[in-house]
Specification:
alpha+beta, 60s Ribosomal Protein L30, Chain: A, six-stranded mixed sheet, two-stranded antiparallel ribbon, 2 helices, 24% helix, 27% strand, globular
């Protein structure tokens, strides 16, 4: 199985939120699960149902989704100045302790695609359950080269719940 960026169309999201919010130079990408089309590619608990290698694969799919959202927001990944922060959440067995090894899958792919710009601070942690039984969820914060206005996101006035 090879990794590649999702081709064409929008990434499927579920819920009442936006996948990306830009504020100044900061770009916040919502949590991404390893969804490929309509399928969650890796499900279950790391350490019982899922191997570390499979969980790393899931983390890489999550990063590809996040990078696709960054590219869509900025027009090009060359507009990313820095990936500042990443959080990797792993649905795992009670005795699982290889959280950082799973997160390494995401960090390694970020570096492979972005070079030094992709080196980030990160947190990896375990959870009892993730949406859609996904094994991994990843969110990140990046900085763009060109800052945008104080409030710019994919949510437009009239589309947010508090706009009246």
């Amino acid at each position: 199985m090879s990794l590649r960026f999702p081709n064409g169309g929008e990434l499927k999201i579920g819920g009442n939120y936006v996948p990306v919010v830009r504020h100044g130079e900061a770009i916040y990408v919502s949590g991404e699960i390893p969804r490929v089309g309509d399928t969650i590619a890796v499900t279950g608990r790391a350490g019982s149902d899922v191997t570390v290698a499979q969980a790393q694969w899931a983390a890489k799919i999550c990063i590809l989704r996040a990078l696709s959202l960054l590219k869509a927001s900025l027009g090009s990944l060359s507009q990313v100045q820095s990936v500042m922060r990443m959080t990797v959440i792993i649905q795992c067995a009670q005795d699982f302790t290889q959280h950082s090894e799973v997160a390494d899958g995401a960090s390694e792919l970020l570096y492979a695609v972005m070079g030094p710009v992709g080196v980030q601070t990160r947190t990896s942690l375990g959870a009892y359950r993730l949406p859609k039984n996904a094994t991994v969820e990843v969110d990140l914060v990046a900085a763009s080269i060109v800052p945008v206005g104080a409030r710019d996101s994919q949510a437009q006035p009239g589309n947010r719940p508090n706009d009246a």
